[in-house]
Amino acid sequence: MTQTKIQLKTKIFDVLRRKYVALTPEEEVRQGFVHFLIEDRHYPKELLANEVELNSGNKKLRCDTVVYDTALKPVMIVEYKAPHIELTQAIFNQILDYNSLLGVTYLVMSNGRTTVCCKVNDGNYEFLKEIPEYSTINTKEQ
């Protein structure tokens, strides 16, 4: 008699995609950060999207999280990495590639231990001390 081993994968509910997803270290960072945006920085859940696909020629890119203003214009891109992955220039370059297609004002990267946020203004990058409240980035109301 042979026994088959059933491997159960731990899952977590993604409130934006409205489904359970595999709980990887990066996904744990994403879910924690999304809840931080919603609960602490008052970002409307309806104006956040996870795993946003972009097309650049025949190349497909995928933004981890995109934040939209109330006119549904993208205003922030967030890139997540697992906690053991250091935030580097290469990761910043990755988010810049996404931004060449979306043209957002805020770029964020986080590994759950370290978070970097910058505001893009005429090709200059102003690094911020904290993630801004949603009311300050909603360009529709400015």
Helices and strands, in order, run as EEHEEEHEEEH
Trace the largest sheet across and list its strands.
Answer: 3-4-5-6-7-8
| Strand fraction | 35-45%
How many beta-strand segments? 8
Largest sheet: 6 strands, mixed
The residue-averaged pLDDT reads: 90
Which segments are poorly predicted (pLDDT under 50) over 5 or more consecutive residues? none
Shape: globular
Count of alpha/pi helices:
3
**What percentage of residues falls in helices of 4 or more residues?**
10-25%
Helix-strand layout with pairing:
Layout: E1 11-14, E2 19-22, H1 25-39, E3 48-56, E4 59-68, E5 74-80, H2 89-102, E6 106-110, E7 115-121, E8 124-128, H3 134-137
Parallel strand pairs: 5-6
Antiparallel strand pairs: 1-2, 3-4, 4-5, 6-7, 7-8
